[in-house]
Write a structure and sequence with these properties.
single chain; 0% helix; 7-stranded mixed β-sheet; 118 residues; 11 strands
Amino acid sequence: QVHLVESGGGLVQAGGSLRLSCAASRSILDFNAMGWYRQAPGNQRELVAVISGGGTTNYADSVKGRFTISRDNAKNTVYLQMNSLKPEDTAVYYCNGVLRGLVPITYWGQGTQVTVSS
C-alpha cells in the first residue's frame, strides 16, 4: 500500500505564500509523475501542477508564474511553493502520484486545506 501525506496548508492573507509538502511512503522514483490538484467547494477537482520523473513540469494557466512544483528524490517528497496567493486559490489541495507498472495505479493523499483571505 502506498501512502501520500500532505502538509503545509493553512490560512494566509492574499499576496502571501505557503509551501505544501507531499511525503510518499516509497521512493517517488517509482512514480511516472506526481502532481498537485485542488478542489474548491462546489467545484470539480482540477490539476494545479505536475512533475514527471525526469523533472518536466506543467502548470494550470491560473497558477503559472506564481506556483512552483519540485521534488526531492532523497526525501521522497514533492513540494508546491505557492506565492502571490489569491482568494480564488482557496481549496483543498491533494497530492497525486501515478505508480509505474503494467497497470499504472493512481494514489491520492488525504488533502490539506489552503484558505486565502482577502
